[in-house]
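Saturday, quiet lab. Running sequence design on the structure tokens for the scaffold JK sent over.
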């Protein structure tokens, strides 16, 4: 279930991101920057996850996902009106972190 969390969260909020960033076409890029880092980190993590305790992985990943989810809402609301390019690239970077972090579960 947690693998679907970032992807479904972005799909559910695409209307919000499209309204905040109408010139950037986030409906194409944001699902990609969630999926590709998730796949890459999953491939690398396959070899090292057995060394990290499950409780530590789950606690840290869910804490990071909660922080990123909060920032994905706050960054466009606080920065999109004055610094739209900066806000958009921060959202893209947060989506990369969001997708990569969930692969550690």
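Result came back. Writing it out in full:
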């Amino acid at each position: 279930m947690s693998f679907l969390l970032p992807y479904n969260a972005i799909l559910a909020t695409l209307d919000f991101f499209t309204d905040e960033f109408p010139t950037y076409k986030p409906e194409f890029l944001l699902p990609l920057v969630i999926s590709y880092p998730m796949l890459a980190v999953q491939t690398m993590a396959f070899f090292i996850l057995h060394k990290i305790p499950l409780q530590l992985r789950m606690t840290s990943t869910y804490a990071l996902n909660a922080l990123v989810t909060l920032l994905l809402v706050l960054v466009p609301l606080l920065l999109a009106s004055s610094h739209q390019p900066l806000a958009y690239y921060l959202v893209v970077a947060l989506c990369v972190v969001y997708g990569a972090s969930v692969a550690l579960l």
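Notes for JK: The chain has five helices and no strands. Residues 54-79 form the longest helix (26 residues). Ask whether to fix the surface positions before the next round.
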